[in-house]
UniProtKB/TrEMBL annotation:
Residues 456-528 form the ACT domain. Its EC number is 1.1.1.95. This is D-3-phosphoglycerate dehydrogenase. It comes from Psychrobacillus psychrotolerans. Belongs to the D-isomer specific 2-hydroxyacid dehydrogenase family. GO terms for biological process: L-serine biosynthetic process.
Length: 528
């Protein structure tokens, strides 16, 4: 059998070698197609490979009557209509690991350039000035590098920094002290990292929790003369706060490759001699561009020959009769995972997903992937999807077990997600109620009835008169309206919980005030 492959964006010959080398593959390279021409040709191809130039719209996908797989030679898939591809049962793959080495090398290059004032000295020399005194730098040996975000790139940066004989302290939501020790670095909280570091480099995704992670308050906690590197995502550092910190002398210098708004050419940061910057070059190497093409090419070959892929982006197709029964539970499964991610303390070590009642008789693997996606997404961001969630959990060392029981436990179908960490075990269960949608029906050992959406507040308290009133009064003082409340208790006067649906997020200061109330043990905001 011959597979027809269309490459519509420029890819190197070395990058598509796996396709050229595979038997039974007919490769057509045409990088000058208009959308109309692509629509006319796509029906004859089994696979489409693109970079960022080609827009793979719903119209193109619907005309790809033989299309089985779309490969994006890069990380992002903004130019591909994932929903349309999924509906048609077309798998989409990308290359999330291809730029790891290049991004790490660029981060180290920026760190060294920052430490030794290399760009500034070169610019001075170009202007015919021989000025050695102005550009005295610092050695990085025995200095402490703080790494915020210790995934693939963060670990590669740390490995290289240790080669420069730097000390490394790192934070990541999935990093434990034991893992850090095995990797040869010191483990710390965000605050411990920024207080200890002489140089700070960020390698987190841009999430609600990480936007402006490095802000005015963070700068105030840092050492005087700290130096900052950001080759990850624009927005992790508050650029205005960084400017003020440099002007005050708190920050000695900054090296930036990414920015909140790009192109970045007008910001006042660029007027400062202490700042060096590059135009988002972290992944811009010949090797990285070849590697992403190679990775995607191998996935295309593997899928068409064996039906397996390494880096899927969208949900693989399931039989229509099974999909019709489990699809209504997709959002619920993800919400349960997300709820547990906010509720539980510590790094997840084991996750048990139990299906009770009618769901126990179905293929629930897609639901488990959704639950894991919800669990990881708040920490890893949009890079987590239905298909790669299990793979990412495995890579993080999280054991995932899927369990089934025919016992209905009072519900037609029930999903229970349990997460174990070093600090304990937490669990949440949910179901669908006819005509009412998803419901959380149990948290740990307490029975509740809560809609899993919007802003929630989970409070553990002592079952005493006035506890609920004090919480309501404080929320009112913060301008937060209560939409609904559920309470549960183990026994009269014993441990109890409140599950409160509210109209907006509770800020950290409000959470601390809640925890300080009489008879309140703990308060956790949960955003779904």
């Amino acid at each position: 059998m011959t597979f027809n492959i269309l490459i519509s964006d420029p890819l190197s010959e070395d990058g598509i070698f796996p396709l050229r080398n595979a038997e039974g593959f007919n490769i057509v390279v045409d990088t000058s197609l208009t959308p109309e021409q692509l629509g006319e040709k796509i029906g004859g191809f089994d696979a489409l490979l693109v970079r960022s130039q080609t827009q793979v719209t719903r119209e193109i996908i619907e005309k790809g009557t033989n299309l089985k797989i779309i490969g994006r030679a890069g990380v992002g898939v903004d130019n591909i209509d994932l929903t349309a591809a999924t509906e048609r049962g077309i798998i989409v793959v990308n290359a999330p690991d291809g730029n790891t080495n290049s991004a790490a090398e660029h981060s180290i290059a920026m760190l060294m350039s920052l430490a030794r004032n290399i760009p500034q000295a070169f610019h001075s020399l170009k202007n015919k000035k021989w000025d050695r005194k102005t550009f005295i730098g610092v050695e990085v040996k025995n200095k402490t590098l703080g790494v915020l975000g210790f995934g693939r790139i963060g670990q590669e940066v740390a490995f290289r920094a240790k080669g420069q004989r730097m000390n490394v302290i790192a934070y990541d939501p999935f990093l434990t002290a034991e893992k850090a020790e095995k990797l040869g670095v010191q483990f710390g909280t965000v605050e411990e990292v920024i207080k200890a570091a002489d140089f700070i480099t960020v390698h987190t995704p841009l999430l609600k929790e990480t936007r402006h992670l490095i802000n005015k308050e963070a700068f105030e906690k840092m050492k005087d003369g700290v130096q900052i590197i950001n080759c990850a995502r624009g927005g992790i550092i508050d650029e205005d706060a960084l400017y003020d910190a440099i002007m005050s002398g708190k920050v000695a210098g900054a090296a930036l490759d990414v920015f909140e708004e790009e192109p970045f050419v007008e910001h006042k940061l660029l007027t400062l001699p202490q700042v060096i910057a590059t135009p988002h070059l972290g992944a811009s190497t010949i090797e990285a561009q070849e590697i992403v093409a190679i990775d995607v090419s191998y996935d295309v070959v593997s899928f068409l020959q064996n039906g397996t892929v390494k880096n899927p982006v969208n949900l693989s197709s399931v039989p229509k009769d099974v999909l019709a029964k489990i699809e209504p539970f997709f959002n619920l499964a993800e919400q349960l995972g997300s709820f547990l991610s906010d509720l539980a303390d510590g790094v997840p070590e084991e996750v048990n997903i139990t299906y009770s009642g009618e769901l126990a008789n179905l293929d629930t693997r897609p639901l488990s992937r959704n639950a894991i996606k919800g669990l990881l997404k708040s920490k890893l961001g949009e890079s987590v999807n239905d298909v790669n969630a299990k793979f990412l959990a495995d890579r993080l060392g999280i054991t995932v077990n899927e369990l089934k029981t025919s016992k209905s436990k009072g519900f037609t179908s029930l999903i229970t997600v349990e997460m174990k960490t070093a600090t304990g075990t937490r669990k949440v269960a949910g179901t669908l109620l006819n005509g009412l949608g998803g419901r959380i029906v149990r948290v740990d050992d307490f029975i509740v009835d809560v809609v899993p959406s919007g802003y929630l507040l989970f409070i553990r308290h002592k079952d005493q008169p006035g506890a609920i009133g004090r919480v309501g009064t404080l929320l009112a003082s913060e301008g937060i309206n209560i939409a609904a409340m559920q309470v549960g208790r183990s026994e009269v006067g014993g441990d109890a919980i409140m599950m409160i649906s509210i109209d907006k997020h509770v800020e950290e200061s409000g959470v601390e005030q809640l925890k300080a109330l009489e008879d309140i043990f703990d308060a956790t905001p949960i955003d779904l």
